[in-house]
Amino acid sequence: MTTIATTNPATGEVEKTFDALTDEEVDRRVGRAADTFASYRTTDVAQRAGWMNAAADILDRESAQIAAMMTTEMGKTLKAAGAEVQKCAKACRYYATHAEEFLTDRRPSDAGAVGARDAYVRYQPLGPVLAVMPWNFPLWQVIRFAAPGLMAGNVGLLKHSSNVPQTALFLEDLFRRAGFPEGAFQTLLIGSSKVERVLRDPRVKAATLTGSEPAGRSVASIAGSEIKPSVLELGGSDPFVVMPSADVEAAARTAAESRCLNNGQSCISAKRFIVDIGCADEFERLFVENMRAKRVGDPMDDATDIGPLVSEEGRAEAEEQVADAVAKGAAVLCGGERPDGPGWFYPPTVISGVTPDMRMYHEEVFAPVASVFRVRGVSEAVEIANATGFGLGSNAWTRDDAERERFVRELDAGQVFINGMVTSYPELPFGGTKRSGYGRELSAEGMHAFCNAKTVWVG
Fold it and tell me: CA–CA separation, 343 vs 36, rounded Å?
């Protein structure tokens, strides 16, 4: 029988093991989801809102325990984990408050224009949705699907990353304790090889995945062959552009915060820092100072800024990317060497002189490693910013209105943040372009992604 385990990244030690579900157990859970959907879809939105608010209350009440569990499983700092729990509670309350508005029948301004006495769009749930989720934000990634999905009347089947099984099981327990019907949200403790079997089950109606590009290609291919809708949020190599008109000190401070977010393991962290030659020396000096000031250590310690990477394989991958750049002529301005001792720690690192023949130029670096580019003017900045297969988020720092408008218009990404750090909000749609995926999560768009927008025409 396959074993799924919690391995503490700060020590490298296995903390707890779980048996994976058998195929028969998975089939029973899928059947339970389908049976539950038949009645759950007809529940009143106000009733769902009561349950969702109860889930938020549990998150608030048990925040400390939940945060410690996440830190143990994937290494994020305890204070970052606590903030993640609070963000999830906020999202639950947001959808509990706004679901009725988002699901209200939408009428054209003039029904008569389509020759009808009445005409409208009704949003109806699809059914059981398979959510394939990653380890880096183990609570938030799930909640940002589950909150709108459950409020829309869908039911969820969670295949979480195999290194966060305790968080995965907690999420099922969370919604059960909040009052949602048995089967409304279930965790499937299975390996990646079992995803295809679940997704091809005719009782499963759609899929959402946050994760790597290979995983996204696989799920998209399977869903497409089954003619099932899917939403993908994949990797990112976000640009962070700084122009001479910017508040360079604030930009450098925010740049270090973004690059080191979640121990450097966030798809929407800025990774490529593209700086106009007019302010490059100042920015680079301040950026390196801010990166060096970050404290690496025990993620349970409130004084720690950066905990361990999630795995030895993840650290080795980052080291290989840095070594490749250095071997081809790049310079290490700070960091670049693993510390001694247990755990999978890696220091904040800044690399300059990155060129297109280096892996780091094209690949996402999932560690606190930044590459700095010097450019002349907006056009070259945009050219390098867009010179990637990814298009998740982007940052631009400028106080010039014309430059701002060009960045908004020309940066090829799902999000453009001007003078601020890319993050996600329940109120705004979230997703990418190019190889960063398709579809949108959060806001009304995220809820409608797993609804049938049914046209109704009444003569």
Answer: 43
Which candidate in 233, 284, 364, 441 is catalytic? 233
Q: Annotated catalytic, 233?
A: yes
> Could you say which of 88, 92, 260, 267 is catalytic?
267
DSSP code for 201: S
**Burial (0-12, 13-18, 19+ Cβ within 10 Å), 270:** buried
267 is catalytic: yes
Task: Give dist(CA 151, CA 97) in Å, integer.
Answer: 10
For 419-448, write each residue's pLDDT tens digit.
999 999 999 999 999 999 999 999 999 999
C-alpha span between 259 and 369 (Å, rounded): 7
Count CA atoms closer than 13 A to 403's CA, side-chain side.
21
121 three-state secondary structure: strand
Entry pTM: 0.97
Question: What token pair was written down for 276?
Answer: 């106009």
- Give phi and psi for 364, each to the nearest 5: -75, 135
Q: Give the span between the Cα atoms of 175 and 188, in whole angstroms.
A: 15
* Model pLDDT for residues 208-262, shown as the tens digit of each residue: 999 999 999 999 999 999 999 999 999 999 999 999 999 999 999 999 999 999 9
Q: Is the pLDDT of residue 1 over 70?
A: no
